[in-house]
Amino acid sequence: MQIQPILAALRRHRLATLLIAMEIALACAVLCNACFMIANRIAMMHIDSGVDETSLATVQLTGYEDSHAVDLNARVLAGLRSIPGMQSVTVLNSIPFGARRGTAGITLDAAAQHFGGVVEFYVGGPGSLQALGVHVIAGRGPQADDFRAFTGLMPSDASVQITHSLAEHLWPGVDPLGKDFWLDKMHYRVVGVIDHLVRPDPPGWPDNSKDWSIFVPAQPGKLLAGSYLLRADPRDVPRVLRDARAMIAKVAPDAVFDQEGSQTLSDLRATCFRQDRAMAGILVGVIVALLLVTALGIVGLASFWVQQRRRQIGIRRAIGATRGDILRYFQTENFLIVSFGIALGMVLAFALNVMLMKFYELPRLPLYYLPIGALVLWALGQIAVLGPALRAAAVPPVVATRSV
Amino acid sequence: MFGYYLDLAVRSLKRNKVLTALMVIAIAVGIGASMTTLTVMHLLSGDPLPGKSGTLFYPQVDADPTTDFSHKDPVDVMDYHSAVDLWTAHRADRQALIVDSQLKVRAPETSLPPLMEMMLSTTSDFFPMFDVPFQYGSSWQPQDDEKHARVAVISADLNDKLFGGANSVGRTLQLRDTDVRIVGVLKPWRPSPQFYMVAGGRFAHGQTADFYSKPEDVFTPFTSGLEINDGNFWQFTCWHMPDKPGYLVDSPCEWIRLWVELDSADKVAGYRSFVAGYAEQQKALGRITHAENTRLRSLMQWLDYNGVVPSDVRLQTWLAFAFLAICLFNTVGLLLAKFLRRSGEIGVRRALGASRAAVFAQCLVEAGMIGLLGGIGGWLLTLAGLWLVRRQPAVYADMAHLDVSMFLVTFALAIATSLLAGLLPALRACQLAPGLQLKTL
After folding, report:
1. Among residues B160, B153, B121, B119, which one has the least CA distance to residue B134?
2. Residues A256-297: tens digit of each pLDDT
3. Whether A296 and B22 lie within 8 Å, measured CB to CB
4. B323 and A290 in contact by Cβ < 8 A?
5. Does A187 contact B at CB distance below 8 Å?
6. Cα–Cα 20 to 30 A to B65, which of A146, A216, B15, B367?
7. In chain A, whose CA is at the least distance from the CA of B240?
8. What are phi and psi of A117, to 5 degrees?
9. With contacts defined as CB-CB under 8 Å, which chain A residues touch B23?
10. Pairwise CA distance, residues A27 & A389, whole Å
11. Chain B neighbours among A 309-348 (CB < 8 Å)?
12. Does A278 touch chain B (CB under 8 A)?
């Protein structure tokens, strides 16, 4: 296939060629970045919570008086534990993807000079860490005498477990076991490291800090009540939660059952990321519409060119070109224009990515998105041009003899 | 001539229906996408109190005495001491203290189960200051604030829920375990954003959709609210742990907002120096250390500072306009093809004496016609797009409707886009040499 005559023809249609190439370039830039954003959203939606989500549910109670909290805990725990199929019921202040009650800034010294970061304190009663199903990868989990009664926000001088990513952030490259940190005047010592325990609200935090959580063992009481973690066999969880609701109405009529907050953890996760799912859906919609419009543009212009060149095609056919030659001519022409557009588009894609990184805290676009985007656009161009090119190939040689 | 050009445009569009349809669809889809996002953007970034917002201001004092953290900006809300001091001075035309908390609400005269609702505790100026509309009754009086009166104003929503929408003024509401008398019922009120509660936007990483939540359902006098729901107030932040969580009066915590209304530039300057003077005086008393760190932002400045428009919405808007640009290029290419195909016809017109300007005008009329058709399609697609937005799980979804101004913008944008698209092809068409075209006929 000779490229020379195609280029010569394109030179006579510089403006139209440039327009289609620009359209392809813009499409390439938006396509690469939109795909990248979709991938990011999906990755975020699949964040590792570190807990056995399918086995867990939570019951959230409000509207009771603090003075009744101890009594309420006793009634609710006894009531919920009597539900058939319930493996454990424990008290836990914050719930992954659910209630957030322990967000605070910590410091690495008692004088509060060295700021450590804003973390999530999961304050839980006996058994709650095991019920979550997190993995202790260094040191130890909480022991019976770690769970102590408290009067403030949470116990002080507690032995706590922290996540691996938080340990790496606070003491990079150093063994975190035995290290101390402070929350205002309250002191904590790290005795265990857990691999993952996500914050209750991961979408609101930068990527590296979504997993900054601390587990503080505590005795349920006045300020640790009303938030329960239910564990059951994954098949029983929805039923157990339904039963729990009926049970609460019976054993704690004085409290208000928080409908929205009391869900299975799988449902809480879905709710937590629904905005991201919606956004990913919108992006997919935009990509589809974008490819469609681009394809329509190619079809429109190629059809016009075919019609304009009917006589030339007829002459070529009359002097020996096969249908295949004509077909390939238009396909090659399209390939050249699209390639030109893609070359431009890659630069644009990078420029757009730099802008997005600046304003939307998006990471850098991995290079492999560019060849994938290019392949998609080449394929799109070939599919779009096929119809007009086939029509061109069908032009009979006799056209050459007409109206000469 | 315009009528004749219109006639020509219609004939030309009818001649090649496929090409016309392609162009109209391209414009319609581009307009539909960009107008949908633009309408949401318009809704979220608009002025919540047009005509009034310029007189509303948000004072800030930095009461955090610690020196370890950055004090570049004061914390978004104030401690009890500073806020109440500034309010008590009554130096503005109007002033409202604001704090919200959750509590159990019952209507003792009905058999409905108790509800957990958000209660806004504020001072009587709140309602006239923010033009809050009343359905029944009215706000409580300033003396009710002083007397810690057990009165409440409720939202239209809650009134529907508890009293079936009837005039409930004078009836009793049980808040936690305190009985209060309803003195007013609001009309449906949905400011966008819920501007008086906005704070902390700079820590939200663009996840600011919650700023568009519905207003609270129960409003009580500030002093009464603090007593009724004692022990259930939550801090924005604290520089030291409060002794008893939930009890924040005189605690080292920031949790109260203050809004003031100032009707003239002089008063704004006066209030600014009053706040600065207050901070200096408190520093002299040894209560605060960062006296220079005071702010007095207007409502719109405060919303800007908090970046209230969620980053996803801004992203969608950019995306939609990139998409419109692609549609524009597409239309330019197709119009170019369409006009140049009629080179012969244009040659004849030129040979018969039509000026370049006349040919140019004729081409633009045709482009504008496509824009009008695309605008109609774009309008329908915008309605469909907004319907989709309303089905999204965002707190602002219920507000996404096309108003008159955005309806007009749809058509203006469509026609502007098509004229822009037609500009280059029309220019090419009117530069054709008539002689050359006539020869090829």
Report:
1. B153
2. 899 889 999 999 999 999 888 888 988 898 899 889 889 988
3. yes
4. yes
5. no
6. A216
7. A184
8. 140, 170
9. 300
10. 23
11. none
12. yes
To which H or E segment does residue A62 belong? strand A56-62
Kindly determine whether residue A278 and residue B68, on different chains, have CB atoms separated by under 8 Å. Answer: no
Query: In this predicted structure, what is the pLDDT of residue B340?
Result: 82
Q: How far from each other are the two terminal CA atoms of chain B, in whole angstroms?
A: 26
Amino acid B69: pLDDT: 62
Q: Write out chain B residues lying below 8 Å of A30, CB-based.
A: 319, 322-323, 326
Whether residue A207 is contained in a domain is answered as yes
Kindly state whether residues A289 and A206 are assigned to the same domain. no
**Predicted pLDDT of residue A230:** 96
Q: List B238's β-bridge partners, or say none.
A: B253
Instruction: Average the pLDDT over A131-141 and give the result.
Output: 94
Whether residue A122 is contained in a domain is answered as yes
Residue B275: per-residue pLDDT? 95
What are the chain A neighbours of B341 within 8 Å (beta carbons)?
304, 307-308
Contact at 8 Å (CB) between A49 and A198? yes
Give the number of A-B residue pairs with CB atoms closer than 8 Å: 146
CA A342 from chain center: how many Å? 28
**A232: Cβ–Cβ under 8 A, 6 or more apart, which residues?**
A55, A57, A85, A86, A87, A240
Quick check: B246 and B274 in contact, CB under 8 A?
no
Is A207 within 8 Å of chain B by CB? no
| Residue A95 sits in the same domain as residue A220 | yes
- Dihedral of CA atoms B251, B257, B261, B266 in degrees, nearest 10, equals 60
Roughly how many angstroms between the first and final C-alpha of chain A, as a whole number?
28
Whether residue A248 is contained in a domain is answered as no
Q: Which residues of A touch B104 (CB under 8 A)?
A: 62-63, 256
Looking at the DSSP bridge assignments, the partners of residue B136 are B185
Residues A40 and A95 in one domain: no
Cα of B63 vs its chain's centroid, Å: 30
Rounded Cα distance between B139 and B153, Å, is 7
Residue A85 forms contact with B (CB below 8 Å): no
Express each pLDDT in A186-244 by its tens digit.
999 999 999 999 999 998 888 889 999 999 999 999 889 999 999 999 999 999 999 99
Interface residue of B334, B338, B439 to substitute, partner A, most A CBs within 10 Å = B334
In this prediction, residue A403 has a pLDDT band, given cuts at 50, 70 and 90, of low
B286's tokens = 């040894």
What pLDDT band is residue A6 in, cutting at 50, 70 and 90?
confident
pLDDT at A101 > cutoff 50: yes
Number of domains chain A is built from: 2
- Does residue A379 belong to any structural domain of this protein? yes
**DSSP labels for B391-438?**
TSS-TTGGG----HHHHHHHHHHHHHHHHHHHHHHHHHHHTS-HHHHH
CB contact under 8 A, A152 and B241: yes
- Please, are residues A371 and A28 in contact by the beta-carbon 8 Å criterion? no
> Is the CB of residue B277 less than 8 Å from the CB of residue B294?
no
Decide if B114 touches A, using CB distance below 8 A. Answer: yes
Which whole number is the average pLDDT over A365-390? 94
B218 touches chain A (CB under 8 A): no
pLDDT tens-digit series, residues B23-33: 898 889 889 98
Q: Do A363 and A43 contact (CB within 8 A), yes or no?
A: no
Segments in chain B below pLDDT 50: none
Place of tokens 């669809």: B25
Indicate yes or no: pTM above 0.90: no
Both tokens of residue A124? 């839980």
- What's the confidence (pLDDT) of residue A404? 45
User: Which residues, at least 6 apart from A216, have a Cβ–Cβ distance to it below 8 Å?
Assistant: A102, A121, A122, A123, A124, A154, A155, A158, A160, A188
